[in-house]
């Protein structure tokens, strides 16, 4: 009895310790006390519950779940449903968490809150929206703002991933989280400018709310703003401002945010900007997308986009096996998705295996008829690249849902014209026109023969036929157009022009339907036109011309003044007594008396011979012999200095001195033998 009383007393002390630690938030010490209680009473339900709560508060979710699963007889689903579901949710076992919540006998407010979070992670946005609406309607506590934030996040996700037009929730955007979610919803609608304004407002609110706390540093504020700045950069990227977006993305990466999901998205967006350029930077960035826990932070579409870009990067970096492996994995995950098969086809084309690429695309088109149109467009592009234009046309014409589209008609007609297959081009026009006639006839309101697309196709067909000499066929189209709109003068003129080459009489009959010249005359105010800004210069010019002509008419009797011819300049050595050389206009080499240049007579002998040597008369140029020469001698190999005031002619213009020719030759011979300078 004494022992049991002692145990009860120690248990009471332990429980008071647990209570005190719980109130102080010291769950580690509380856990120690709970474990001591469980040693006394191992199946104590309250102690087990407290242990689970302490483990959850300490972040030991696996151990907490293990305790729950070990004591299932004591900890029934009614007692521990919320704690079990929460542990499963935090361990990313989302499907298990959903089953635990749904199997609970009583749906408490806590379970409903967790249920909304679970549905959001499972991307069941419609059910999630209904769950949060119910919570907001039936709850009144301090967490109302958080529930509204979650509700706006669901609406933003619907707009972004499901392209659902978001409804106006009537929420007052008093917090930066609400502003951010509203901006995300606007991005999903394509309203980028409005979204940017919302993000700027969110940034301002974030700075205001965080700056009020004295413990928050500037680094903490920048870290919190990282997700807002990341969304701003994404808008810039969508707007084509890639340089600005890239700069902002890199600034966020330098901050090293702890959110691996944010880093993965930014890295992926940088890779999309780089494309097939700067692949080394892309290979560095792709490592951020492989961080642990990324798969639990992003939506399925975000993860899928990252995997697509990994496959494309492998292709750009010539990693063919890696590209095939990634694209095959993507195709197995999403068999109906277009991108994996398109990446595989692109890789085959890079390897010059166009036939295999076309066969791969054809197999996919056969297996997935719903996506056949886009695949066949790619096949046609490959055929054009191979030079098989006719085969490309056949593939395009097999896409029934696009045959009547003006863009497809234009493309086919252009391609057939390039191949000079005019009959096939005309057939394309005929099929498209027939489709519109049948479509209009099937409408409940009846046929609309004046449909703009229908009439434009007929007009284009008529113009094409006229251009290629098919006048009779063009006439039937023009008559159809004129019948639909008898007041169309342009069509009537074309019809008359066509008939004039085939049936002139018919052209004359039709020409009577043309409006008279009186009805066609434009009501133009001539005076106003002449006084307009554009006609002012023309009028002045015309006035000058008329004035000149009048002067000429008046002065017809006057004698025209002859212009004085300037006398030609004569050469300086011109002698009037000597008859000019009749061959003076011919080049020297073409004159009859030209005998060629005489050897040995080099002009002026300037710059010839050894360094520093001069021609005869060098003594006259020797500065050392003159009284005015400077005291210093020139450097070896340099020309003698001449003062600015000297009248001595520079050596390059010095005429040879009148020395005998024999003396010159001797000097030249000496110079040829010399090797040194001064």
TrEMBL record:
Q: Where does it live in the cell?
A: Cytoplasm; Endoplasmic reticulum
Bias-annotated ranges (Basic residues):
560-570, 662-678
Q: Which residues form a coiled coil?
A: 94-149
Against InterPro entries, the record matches this protein to: Signal_recog_part_SRP72_RNA-bd, SRP72, SRP72_TPR-like, TPR-like_helical_dom_sf, TPR_rpt
All residue ranges annotated as the Signal recognition particle SRP72 subunit RNA-binding domain in the record: 540-596
Compositional bias annotation for Low complexity = 624-641
Question: Its Gene Ontology molecular function terms?
Answer: 7S RNA binding; ribosome binding
Top-level taxonomic group: Eukaryota
Compositionally biased region (Basic and acidic residues)? 572-593
Give the GO cellular component terms, alphabetically. Answer: endoplasmic reticulum; signal recognition particle, endoplasmic reticulum targeting
Question: Region labeled Disordered — which residues?
Answer: 539-678
Q: Which UniProt keywords apply?
A: Coiled coil, Cytoplasm, Endoplasmic reticulum, Repeat, Ribonucleoprotein, Signal recognition particle, TPR repeat
Where does this chain mainly localize? cytoplasm
The text of the family note is: Belongs to the SRP72 family.
Name used for this protein in its record = Signal recognition particle subunit SRP72
